[in-house]
Structure formats: structure tokens, C-alpha cells
Design brief:
By secondary structure, the protein is an alpha/beta fold. Helix content is 48%, strand content 12%. It folds into three domains: 169 residues, NAD(P)-binding Rossmann-like Domain (Rossmann fold), CATH 3.40.50.720; 84 residues, 6-phosphogluconate dehydrogenase C-terminal fold; 79 residues, no CATH class. The chain has 14 helices and eleven strands. Helix 4 links the parallel strand 4 and strand 5. Helix 4 packs parallel to helix 5, helix 7 crosses helix 11 and helix 13 packs across helix 14.
């Protein structure tokens, strides 16, 4: 039986406790600086017991899971380091890995293993009371192991990941942080920027009556805990700044297309291209192929206007022969620009 300690009983920490308890007889001790969070975790059945002192919470732990905001990990590592038993393994759920790996190397003793983690659940739960042990099922879990990590420590973390129904994905810390900044950090920034830009308008009261699904979707990340968002951004600042620069370039290109009276209506202008490219990339993402095309694709380019006209008189098959083309399926991830 493995003894787990979960530090940080928010939505992720509580969900982890529920998942572990639902799939094993392991013992789980919970700790959170917020007494109410500890009480809620016990009521939800996420932990077997809680400790009010962090040293007592970790002293018997085989695996310590730190599920606090990224910026708090330095203080947590510093606080638990003297009390960890020989052979204990520490992991975390932070979206920023380079800084956390450095802190682990600096603060954790040599007799303790550390392997970084990040559950990529994609779950929309925002509060502890919404926690569920099922959010990890079939999801990916990034594993970032430092060079000094031993096989036993890595196995302890991958066993945990598989126990809760997730799939481990091994990554380099720089690769992880760039990907995390692009897929979680950037949406949080965009959400905050849109919410703040629109809500500070003198007409916000009237504008708010127009709010619908599109506005709700893009501003949803802003409803998350600001402490977590700020902490994640601050500990991965350079990667996030890079992606913001990329976003600014796209915004500027779209703006330039809007203020050009001729180019904004052009079917091959920057404005049209921006929307078409986004539509196609989103279609590929939903199809599970992202930017990759099948090697033996059955798809062909959209038929030419001459082929379309011939098809009206002779039928599509004859039109393809006369037009020199072959009848193939249209790529559903390629936008029909004739609609522009």
C-alpha cells in the first residue's frame, strides 16, 4: 500500500484524492493552508485524513503530490524538505516546469526523488466543490523528469498516473513550457484582455446585454482563480511573452486588413486569409490530424470553375475527364473559398 500526501486541496488536488481512493486502497493524507479546503476534502471523500502541520503531513509519505499554484512550489519544497523520509518521491501538477525543476534541485534533499508532472485534463471545473475523480480518465499527463531522476521515482509517478486512468507523456521541460504557454497561458491572457477591454468601456452596461455564447466561450478562462493564472504566467514568463508576440503580429495583420478599404473585401486578402486559415486549422484539430495530412489522402483540390460549369451540362464524372481532373473526395478541412 502506498502512502500519498496531497498538498493543495483545490480542484485538482481534491480530484486526485478522489481518483486515487476510487481505484486503490492507498492511504491519503491531505494538507491545505485553508482549513475550509481541508474540511471540504474530507467531506467529499478525497482524503483519509488531514494534517494541520505540513511537516506531519509528509513525514510518512511515499509519494508527495504538490497541487498548489506554481508560484507557491518554492515555499512548499523549502517547507517539506527536512521532513521527507528516505526514498520518498515528490511530484507536482504545475503548468511551468523549468522553474520547478530548478527549485526541486535546489531545495529537495538527495535522498528524495523528484519527477515533474502536469495533468492535461482539459476539464472545465473551476472550484473544489466541482472536483471529480473522473477528470483524469483517458487524459494525457505530461511527465518531465530531471536528469538525476532514478527509475524508481519515475515508476512511482507513472504508477500514480495510470492509477487515476491517465496516460503518461514524457517531455523535455523547455518543450513542455512552450506548449503549456501556448495552450493554457495564452488563452488565459486573451480571456483577461478581452474581458478587461470590453468591460471597461463606458457602454459596458449596454454591451453586456449583447453577451452570448461567443463572448462567454472566449472569456471563460477569466472566471478561473486569478492567483493560479498569475502564478502560472509569472513562472513561465518568457515562453508566454513569446506567444503574446505571435498573437500581436496576428492582431496587427487583421487590423491592417480592416482599415484597408479594398483589401478587407478581397477573398485572398489578409482578413479573409486569417479567418480561412483559422477555420481550416480548427477543422484539422477537431478531425484529430492537426496540421498533418494523411500520406495516402483521398482528397483533392476544390474543382475549378470550368469543371463546375461543365458539370452542369455533362455531369460531374464527364466534367472531370474533360477538365483533366479525377473525381476525389473534397477535403473537409479545406475551406471553399468560393464562398468568400
Amino acid at each position: 500500500m502506498t502512502n500519498y500526501t496531497i498538498i493543495g486541496l483545490g480542484r485538482i488536488g481534491t480530484s486526485l484524492g478522489m481518483a486515487i481512493r476510487g481505484n486503490s486502497d492507498s492511504r491519503i493524507i491531505g494538507y491545505d493552508a485553508d482549513n475550509n479546503a481541508q474540511i471540504t476534502a474530507r467531506k467529499m471523500g478525497a482524503v483519509d485524513d488531514t494534517e494541520w502541520n505540513i511537516d506531519q503531513a509528509v513525514q510518512d509519505a511515499d509519494v508527495v503530490i504538490v497541487a498548489t499554484p506554481a508560484g507557491a512550489l518554492y515555499d512548499v519544497f523549502n517547507g517539506i524538505a527536512p521532513y521527507l523520509k528516505d526514498g520518498a518521491v515528490v511530484t507536482d501538477t504545475s503548468p511551468a516546469k523549468r522553474a520547478v525543476l530548478d527549485w526541486a534541485q535546489e531545495l529537495l534533499p538527495a535522498h528524495v526523488g523528484y519527477v515533474g508532472g502536469n495533468p492535461l485534463t482539459g476539464s472545465s471545473i473551476k472550484e473544489q466543490k466541482e472536483a471529480s475523480g473522473y477528470i483524469f480518465h483517458s487524459s494525457r499527463w505530461a511527465v518531465v523528469a530531471p536528469p538525476r531522476a532514478d527509475n524508481g521515482s519515475i515508476r512511482a509517478v507513472t504508477d500514480l498516473i495510470e492509477l487515476v486512468g491517465a496516460k503518461p507523456v514524457f517531455m523535455d521541460s523547455h518543450e513542455h513550457d512552450s506548449f503549456a504557454a501556448a495552450t493554457t497561458g495564452l488563452p488565459a491572457v486573451v480571456s483577461a484582455a478581452v474581458m478587461n477591454a470590453v468591460s471597461t468601456s463606458p457602454s459596458w452596461t449596454e454591451i453586456s446585454r449583447f453577451v452570448g455564447q461567443d463572448f462567454d466561450n472566449i472569456t471563460l478562462p477569466a472566471s478561473g482563480d486569478p492567483a493560479s493564472a498569475q502564478s502560472a504566467a509569472a513562472t513561465n514568463a518568457d515562453m508566454l511573452a513569446h506567444w503574446i508576440d505571435q498573437l500581436i503580429e496576428r492582431f496587427q495583420a487583421i487590423r491592417d486588413g480592416l482599415v484597408d478599404d479594398e483589401a478587407r473585401f478581397a477573398p485572398d486578402g489578409v482578413l479573409a486569409n486569417s479567418f480561412v486559415q483559422a477555420w481550416e486549422q480548427r477543422a484539422r484539430l477537431e478531425a484529430g490530424v492537426a496540421d498533418r495530412r494523411p500520406e495516402n489522402s483521398d482528397y483533392s483540390p476544390i474543382p475549378s470553375s470550368s469543371e463546375s460549369m461543365m458539370g452542369l451540362f455533362f455531369g460531374s464524372k464527364i466534367a472531370k475527364v474533360m477538365g483533366g481532373g479525377k473525381e476525389k473526395k473534397k477535403d473537409p478541412t479545406e475551406y471553399d473559398r468560393r464562398r468568400l
